[in-house]
Amino acid sequence: MMASQNGSTFLPEEDLLNSILNELKRASREYTTATTEASCPSIRRMFTDLASETLKMQGEMYQLIEKQKQYPAAVPYAMKADVDKQLNEMQKTSQKTREFTAQKTSGIESYSHIPNTSEHPTNVQPGH
Description:
Layout: E1 2-3, E2 9-11, H1 13-37, H2 41-67, H3 80-105
Antiparallel strand pairs: 1-2
């Protein structure tokens, strides 16, 4: 735990480091979004530089946390069966979405209103 100036603890070091890491990840996303939205070349360059520097700091923070063994060991590979299962589920969901959309939009033309009277002239005089 980290100690404040008066000696009391306010946040375990692991939590503090993870909070910083998460904030750097959030800032990277925000700078990237700002970069893609900027129309002025100098503003775009500024956000690009900020995003790049923030990504560098995020990488360094991750390395620090990893060295302190605060992350579980990475899984070296995914099981093919697990990947295939996830892919299959996503394909089913995608197909259901297409079917639902087609079902809901197939009869839209039949709901459009065809007027049964001719258009009448406006009763508002121009300039009034």
